[in-house]
Amino acid sequence: MELTRQQQYKKMFPDQPVWRWEQIERAFFNPQITNWLDITTISADLRASLTQNLPWLTVTPDKLFTSRDQQTYKALLALIDGEKIETVLMKNKRGQWSVCVSSQVGCAMNCSFCATGRMGLRRNLTSDEIADQLRYWFYFLRDKKITERVSNIVMMGMGEPLANYDNVVTALWQWLHHTDIGANHITVSTVGLMPFLKKILEDKDWPPVRLAISLHSANETLRKKIVPSTGANFLAELAAWVKEYLKIKGSNKRHITFEYILLRGVNDSARDAKTLADFVMKTGRIKVNLIPFNDINDARLERSPGADEFAKILTSCGVTTTVRQSAGADIMAACGQLAGDDRN
Fold first, then answer.
1. What are the CB-based long-range contacts (under 8 Å, 24+) for 135-138?
2. Which of 100, 107, 114, 335 is catalytic?
3. Which segments of 8-83 are extended strands (E)?
4. Measuring CA to CA, how many Å separate 71 from each of 6, 29, 95, 101, 333?
5. Annotated catalytic, 22?
6. Residue 323 phi/psi, 5° resolution?
7. Which residues contact 219 (CB under 8 A, 6 or more apart)?
8. Given pLDDT bands bounded at 50, 70 and 90, which one contains residue 332?
9. pLDDT digit string (tens) for 199-255?
10. Which of 139, 163, 240, 245 qualifies as a FRET site for 73, CA 20 to 30 Å off?
11. 3-class DSSP state for residue 237?
């Protein structure tokens, strides 16, 4: 297993005080500090040694794509071993920026609507590679002289975050400790790997971030067609888990979101909406986020034209519902389109 920067540092400098790494890690998230030599709170000798032996960033910009309206940017980033990932910067409704972060190279979940799943899983990202995607965008905003801050992080990029549990947890805590982005403005999106969802209930180290479950159907047979990783009796287990989660970790600002990509003729009928509403109302305090399907060059799948009508049915049944506005589809940066290559 590859050592993190912190582990390499401790191996190289076993006699350094514990708080020294805190100084270093804090500097990572200061966009005005661009290399080891800029960290003036540590000695010149230590800075020189770190420069020679540890990478300042574990991701290197390969290509950058800009949407026509200049409200979305997608970066193709190269990793030290030559693998590539994508990360996205999007203008949000608050007039600030949201960053979409990847957690794996590829993905093993193989969801029908997602380009990443067609890559298969190549490897997990290290905690440094996850955290450094945010750092890349901090430097990007600085260099472009864009003053609006990053206010939100969504771990909805390439990969299944809970399948890379430990590295994701480490990266989340780095952001919470060393940036001004609060836990309620960070969302981890998962297909709902039940062993890891159950682990969250008991894990005192799991950070108090928001969770979004990629549901896509409240009919178990249909969901398995859309999300092949769906286990037996998933919906019943999910309902029980949500109730337990809301009891243990829920709050007024920390609800569960069900994400639902609307696919024409697949899961977008009035009956589908009512089935979803029934499931939500029996489960607990859930917000449903309807997501338009974004083209992944698959003629079998089409965007549903009925998002507004679907939302009306949910709302009439008492379900809190939003319809996501797609951003960056013209540069293949929207939901489901990331594939770690140089398409645009």
1. 135/28, 135/29, 135/31, 135/57, 136/57, 136/59, 136/61, 136/75, 136/77, 136/87, 137/75, 137/87, 137/89, 137/97, 137/99, 138/29, 138/31
2. 335
3. 59-66, 72-79
4. 35, 23, 10, 17, 11
5. no
6. -115, 115
7. 272, 275
8. confident
9. 999 999 999 999 999 999 999 999 999 999 999 999 999 999 999 999 988 776 778
10. 163
11. helix
Contact between 172 and 186 (Cβ < 8 Å): yes
Cα-flanking dihedrals φ and ψ of residue 248, to 5°?
-90, -45
Q: How far apart are CA 182 and CA 170, in angstroms?
A: 16
The one catalytic residue among 2, 22, 86, 309: 86
114 tagged catalytic = no
The pTM for the full model equals: 0.94
Q: State the Cα–Cα distance between residues 38 and 28, nearest whole angstrom.
A: 10
State the Rg of the chain over Cα. Answer: 21
Tokens of 97: 């920026």
First to last CA, the chain: 33
Interatomic CA distance for residues 333 and 88, integer angstroms: 7
Q: Which residue, among 185, 62, 166, 161, has the nearest Cα to 107 in the 3D structure?
A: 161
Helix (H, G, I), strand (E, B) or coil at 245: helix
- For 168, the 3-state DSSP assignment is helix
Q: Which residues contact 46 (CB under 8 A, 6 or more apart)?
A: 13, 16
